Amino acid sequence: MTDFATTRARFHLPEGVIYLDGNSLGPMPLAAPGHVSAMMQGEWAEMLITGWNKAGWMELATGIGNRVGRLIGAEPGHVVMGDTLSIKVYQALASALELNPGRKVVLSDNGNFPSDLYIADGLLKSLGTEYELRVVSPEDVAENITDDLAVMMLTEVDYRTGRKHDMAALTKAAHAKGVITIWDLAHSAGAIPVDLAGCKADFAVGCSYKYLNGGPGAPAFIYVNPKWVDQARPALSGWLGHEAPFAFDLDYRPGAGIERMRVGTPPVIALKALETALDIWDMTSMAEVRSASIALCDQFIAGVEAACPQLTLHSPRNGADRGSQVSFRFDDGFAAVQALIARGVIGDFRAPDVMRFGFTPLYVSPGDVAAAVDIIADVISNRLYDRPEYRLKGRVT
Amino acid sequence: MTDFATTRARFHLPEGVIYLDGNSLGPMPLAAPGHVSAMMQGEWAEMLITGWNKAGWMELATGIGNRVGRLIGAEPGHVVMGDTLSIKVYQALASALELNPGRKVVLSDNGNFPSDLYIADGLLKSLGTEYELRVVSPEDVAENITDDLAVMMLTEVDYRTGRKHDMAALTKAAHAKGVITIWDLAHSAGAIPVDLAGCKADFAVGCSYKYLNGGPGAPAFIYVNPKWVDQARPALSGWLGHEAPFAFDLDYRPGAGIERMRVGTPPVIALKALETALDIWDMTSMAEVRSASIALCDQFIAGVEAACPQLTLHSPRNGADRGSQVSFRFDDGFAAVQALIARGVIGDFRAPDVMRFGFTPLYVSPGDVAAAVDIIADVISNRLYDRPEYRLKGRVT
């Protein structure tokens, strides 16, 4: 049984801040600067080039991949870290399309993170005009799984509403029609239990700077099902995915298994920061995180709805249908989010009118939620957001 | 006039080590751990998500791109950091091919870094069987520039021999035949003066962990000529290359200029380490680095040739035709490199028999070269490499 006070004690949280935006960027593990600094001074500085072998830098991408894999129900040895989530979406989609030759349609939904749709569009444009990206509403995905689809590419948890797709059911339905699945776990990994192996998901991708707390721009990950991994042709065929990168052969031969999804030189410094976050994840289980997260979200919904009838719930009311965030719609949402940040309650805003709050039991307690609700009630009821400086739209947070 | 003792003093170099492998991984700027730690503790920890605006994380990729751009003769505002070099090769090649529709052949040479060839092969396979990757010897590139080529993709300095292509002449010859050029500057940036603008190079890419000293897995960069940058369609169309990433539109519209070559969330921690390296680069000029580097390489060649007739020079003898490295061929080269590393002279080995040494005046002095030559003479003349433990081939360094 996890005492979340012990995980919370492992993070730095600024004085006076209630942080409800870990769904966008997780807070810093207290051990991160020291661990990164130790790597830089003890490995980079002292070992120089020999660090690739002596310090095990070359194995970090798969070693850490396994630790992430445990949190998303992947078979051991089937997750590797690297690049950014957008790149990993591209990689997965390019491979998946080739594994389903003869079909040219990719199904996604308009609640998918836009970058996934942009990347798909960019890839399909490169492949030719016979390819189609078909985008439907999240609620309509199931009825649009047809046998002309090559790939169904979805983000499990909607970044705006927190609405959660039924990964097991949709994957099963897709397979019944001969469709390969790609699941983006950006708002799932570290937020909710994921069972990639059990769902027989084909590909999955995700980032590590949100719920996993790896730091700004932390590396992404990719999972490939054992059924496909040795058949998948890497479109991004970089040297570290080669069977023998240091043979410097002129011809590309993909490495065994998930190794082939590596591309270029791994980001060692960033991977070291992520290691300290995964040490905290080792202290708990996704099942415990999930039940605590649902309780926090339910508490938040009840508190805000009671105090702020001006706000309209924009997330599923039933915890099992949500990820680990709660969104409310409010016409003055942008200004309200700025006013809340000024009061120390950090959430974020998503156009056109969505106030979004993430809940992560690792470092957010029921007391934090109660305090946040009080501040939100004050800001909304007393229109404290109604000040010109809160309406200046620079880049939104 | 740069006193290279002052730049050397800004790096950590381990006691007893003469480091001649900065062409593979540069040493650590002494300021790097503190700067990274300050960013983590002062920005990530304290600002959390608001760091993207408050700490300027979002502008790092272009700001640092400009600082790298100065070292490679790019027009201001035409270089952006991100991803890995292999990804940037893919990006450049995908865009370049579309800018030359109707032609389907990519010319490269067999001295190009294998990952560039792998990436090209992977992309061309995705695009279709009508595409061809034509690989010739480095010496034969000029005569193979024909008007059926879409793109000429070369690494300016050969990673094995240090042989330097004539970028200005080859670019001019390519343009005369309607061929778009991509220059990989992996062994050029920070090694030799590069004049991208003057050469009218179309695309250029490179990494920052070699001569630029950004750390293991430091981010790559891409340059696009002003002539093309607003026409180039990004195949890797990620959200940060979008005209308005935070509008979360469903349709991709490429950003203005080089911004469109951004893909995913930038690697903030790694970019911070690189900043400290660029502070050192601000202390000197590429012209001074180049003349000092040629002197170091000439001294090394003369010393090794005088002491070790067993070794055969594998680099151009004329400094102007070389990058900033010197290679020798030697049948027992693998074992000899291991023996040298054991004696504190760190170079590296490239199959089948190449001993490779990089020279970087920022932190390698004529005294270091003299000492390295003495140790090499001892190891070779007295066959000190002839021990079983030096013949164990694990991953080469």
Secondary structure layout plus pairing:
2 copies of one chain form a homodimer.
Chain A: H1 4-8, E1 11-12, E2 18-19, E3 28-29, H2 32-47, H3 51-54, H4 60-71, E4 79-81, H5 85-99, E5 105-109, H6 114-127, E6 132-136, E7 149-155, H7 167-176, E8 180-184, H8 196-199, E9 203-207, E10 220-224, H9 226-229, H10 268-281, H11 286-307, E11 312-313, E12 325-329, H12 333-342, E13 345-346, E14 348-350, E15 354-358, H13 366-381
Helix pairs in contact in A: 2-10, 4-10, 5-6, 11-13
Kindly state the mean pLDDT of chain A as a whole number?
A: 97
Number of strands of chain A: 15
* Total of DSSP H or I helical runs spanning 4+ residues of chain A: 13
Largest sheet report of chain A: 7 strands, mixed
Please list the strands of the largest sheet of chain A in the order they lie side by side. Answer: 4-10-9-8-7-5-6
Low-pLDDT windows of residues of chain A: none
What portion of residues of chain A belong to β-strands? 5-15%
